[in-house]
Amino acid sequence: MIGKLNHVAIVVPDLQAATAQYRDTLGAQVSSPTDLPEHGVTVVFVELPNTKIELLHPLGADSPIQSFLDKNPKGGMHHLCYEVNDILSARDTLQATGARVLGDGNPKIGAHGNPVLFLHPSDFTGTLVELEQVNTG
Ligand code: CO
Fold first, then answer.
1. Gap from CA of 112 to ligand 1 centroid (Å)
2. Model pLDDT, residue 61
3. Residue 21 belongs to a domain with what CATH number?
4. Which residues in 90-125 are b (16+ Cβ under 10 Å) and which e?
5. Can you give the pLDDT of all 137 residues of the chain as single tens digits?
6. 130 is catalytic
7. Lowest CB count within 10 Å: 46, 95, 96, 100, which one?
8. How many structural domains does the chain have?
């Protein structure tokens, strides 16, 4: 069902410092910060040869990642994103096994303009999992 690792998301307390570290210390190619108000985050994309890292910082008063940062003040890994061909089929298959989909169960448009869903970390070895439908055709 799952394909490539699309990205690893890391919540960071200082987006500028984290971006500089990935760019200057680790020598990676990084994007400009992008505000995603509908997701309550500002994101910087770190482009690696085989995947991406997303540096996430809370945007707005009720950002869904603020509580994560409160619990992890130095930041930390937030989720893994796997690519799928058909997100509704993937959802239905997973729900049939008892896995919980967060929110109302319907895909939302994610940071890359593709439909995404999040799966409950308690059902996936303590890791928040994002599925992103990527059209590979
Ligand atoms: Co993500």
1. 9
2. 86
3. 3.10.180.10
4. bbeebeeeeeebeeeeebeebbeebbbbbbeeeeee
5. 999 999 999 999 999 999 999 999 999 999 999 999 988 999 999 999 999 999 999 999 899 999 999 999 999 999 999 999 999 999 999 999 999 999 999 999 988 889 999 999 999 999 999 999 998 65
6. yes
7. 96
8. 1
The Cβ of residue 10 has, within 10 Å, a number of other Cβ atoms equal to 18
Neighbours of ion ligand 1 (CB under 5 A): 9, 81, 130
Choice among 38, 47, 54, 130 that is catalytic: 130
Residue 41, pLDDT score? 96
Instruction: Compute, in angstroms, the gap from residue 54 CA to the centroid of ligand 1.
Output: 7
Contact between residue 131 and residue 105 where contact means Cβ atoms under 8 Å apart: no
DSSP letters for 21-80? IIIIIS--EEPPPEEETTTTEEEEEEE-SS-EEEEEEE-STT-TTHHHHHH-TT-EEEEE
Domain that holds residue 67: 5-133
